[in-house]
Fold:
Amino acid sequence: MGRGDLTDAEWERLRPFLPVSNGRCGRWRDHRQVIDGILHRVRTGVQWRDLPERFGPWQTVYERHQLWSADGTWEGLLQQVQAAADIAGEIDWDISADSTIVRAHHHAAGARTDPPSAPAPKGAEATEHQGETPWQQPARPAGGGGAGGEGLGRSRGGFTSKLHLSADGRCRPLSLVVIGAQRADCTQFQAVLAKIRVPRVGSGRPRTKPDSLAADKGYSNGRCREYLRRRGIRHTIPEKTDSQAARLRKGSRGGRPPGFDVERYKKRNTVERAINRLSSWQALRLRRPEPLDRSVDIHRGIKRGYIFLGTATTAALLIWLRG
Structure:
């Protein structure tokens, strides 16, 4: 076992939830070997073609990551690990929300519009889909065919993406959303909270509602507060100075100031620490395309927003596995 690879205990936690052959395609290359290759790339930021030979063909590792990012396998694995932590009482449901900027290489743009179902993968991974008809292949998210559709934009930091997340009280990401960096934090507030879905062990609906939420002034507007009140979520969000001045100018018509718990707000640093944990994975420090050979279509791959989101989800999964 190499440095950074899955331990036996971590592998046993993931193994029951990994996809198995459905009888319509070739045999999967060993899941553990390929996952270790994906983790090596996410941890070190090395180019796919430079993966060590012990992980097998780099095309296989790349295609597996692309496939699982597209069909929701990484997100499903993350939710299963979260479910096990919830049943053990290890999730602190006093959560926080925030976002972070990820610089993007200027060649990261240029992905063309792709239909929901892409052709079968080429290269070494093609054996895993041999004999499948187009409607049997897993659907891939359709791209926007431009920077905005792939979660890219321009901010004061230049050409960037923005990674929105919520984190539990133990600094572990609960949900992730990727958009262009020019969009305000509050525009993705509902989307981030809507992606919190921790399955119940056995029957029952997934848990989607935290005990409380803390966020900074970027989320201090009427729409965010109304959404939280509608769902019955206790929240601590500081009031903006201009909002406070406008309320005071209205006198009694301005209503009461929103509640603010200073001690609860101090726990908002948990999401900042979760961001720091994610940024320790080199593949999340710079979003960039990579020079691939002709066996891999770069326009359906590394330039697509769902691939970058899958990379962030993979890093979050390891954070949960390793505490």
